Amino acid sequence: MSEAAKPDYVLPPALTSRADLARLVREIENIDTDLEAQKARNRSTGGTGYSLPAMSHGLGDFLELNQLDIADDQTRMKLKESMRKLKEHAPVMHLTFAVDADTESLSKLVAWLRQEIHPQALISVGLQPGLVGGVYVRTPNHVHDFSLRSHLQTKRDIMIREIEALMGAA
């Protein structure tokens, strides 16, 4: 990836989906609203102090990873704008599993995607028990079926021939 194409922010591995990103955006907007309200109260009362509201671990990790100070007005404005754009335009890979995937595995998968595919890649996870096992992967350009069901369908003729051979030998 060229230096010109370097993303504005690094996403923590626990932030895996567009929904996670939307929660992060809402939290940043809420903090901004709270800090602006504190400033307005201070102007009307002559006060000077303010306190940062409590933050989620996800936002804390994000701010630490990107070395950002959310108390800074300019940083917060740029962050809100960039995160809204990212929420709309981040590359998303849709994964459909036969069973629920655990959070740790999804975090590892996202870390790999961000290392190998795109540094701000997100995933969308679905559930389809009919896959039997494996995964169905969909991107905007490609569809890949790595399910056990698909694999068994491609080997159907071989299985029938082997079963018939066993039946004939008996």
3D structure, described in words:
- The structure is a single chain.
- This protein is α+β, with helices and mostly antiparallel strands and 170 residues long.
- It has two domains: 11-90, no CATH class; 91-170.
- It has six helices and four strands, in the order H-H-H-E-H-E-E-E-H-H.
- Strands 2-1-3-4 form a four-stranded mixed sheet.
- Strand 1, helix 4 (103-116) and strand 2 form a beta-alpha-beta unit.
- Helix 1 runs antiparallel to helix 3 (73-89).
- The termini are far apart.
Order of helices and strands: HHHEHEEEHH
**Helical content (DSSP H or I, runs of 4+):** 40-55%
**So what's the oligomer here?**
single chain
Please give the alpha-carbon distance between the first and last residues: 61 Å
Beta-strand content: 5-15%
How many strands, what sense, and barrel or not for the largest sheet?
4 strands, mixed
Form type: rod-shaped
Q: Could you name the ranges where pLDDT drops below 50 across 5 or more consecutive residues?
A: 1-5
Strand line-up across the major sheet: 2-1-3-4
| Number of extended strands | 4
Task: Label the structural class.
Answer: alpha+beta
Radius of gyration: 24 Å
Averaging pLDDT over every residue, what do you get?
86
Total count of helical runs of at least 4 residues: 6
* Overall number of domains: 2
